[in-house]
Amino acid sequence: MKHQKIKVSLRKELGKKATKALRKNKCVPCVLYGGGKNIHFFAEERDFRHIVYTPNVYLVELNIDGEIYNSTLKDIQFHPVRDNILHIDFFQIFEGKKITVEIPIKLNGLAEGVKEGGKMQIIRRKLKVKAFAADLPDQLEIDVENVKLGSNIKIAELSYDNLEMLDKKTDVVLTVNLTRAAKGAAEDEEEGVEGEGEGETENTKEDK
């Protein structure tokens, strides 16, 4: 899994007034959970952009006033209008202890159903897994070449070394469906064949 180092500062003051002052200075208040006591800190919003505005999942090394904490991003709050970052929660990672994260998927190959005129719909772009940090991949690769028209891939069909899949086994990850255009063309072709058959029958009757 990808790693990112971020240098941040411990918050000396808490409360609404202090939080408002941080945001006014384009800083983001944050909390680190999971280590016995919660640690409140902050950094400039631009320092978090690499781990927030990306489909990738990162293991984040937080340098809080010289103290190093390994963590993963747990939750983000955005402003409902301006969409800037309001708050970030991190969860501390310990060696020898499994963590739960969502990993993005990567599709390999061209589905058989797509070759036949279907359209692939991705239902789940990230899957929830549990594993040791050292075993977490950047992406979960899925081979889609044998997915036929009208078929799908479910969680139950996927397995990866050293990873425990946490989503429901019946959850659909992706599906290949017939497009409206392809369906309309198929119906027109079918009607055309039926029409030709009817014409031949009438001609045959007239000849007789």
Task: Give the percentage of residues in beta strands.
Answer: 35-45%
Mean pLDDT over all positions? 87
Distance between the termini: 78 Å
User: What fraction, in percent, of the residue positions are helical?
Assistant: 10-25%
Radius of gyration over C-alpha positions, nearest whole angstrom = 27 Å
What is the count of structural domains? 2
Q: What is the annotated CATH architecture of the largest domain?
A: Beta Barrel
- Summing up helix and strand content along with how strands pair, one would put the structural category as alpha+beta
Report the CATH C-level class of the largest domain: Mainly Beta
Q: Specify the CATH homologous superfamily of the largest domain.
A: Ribosomal Protein L25, Chain P
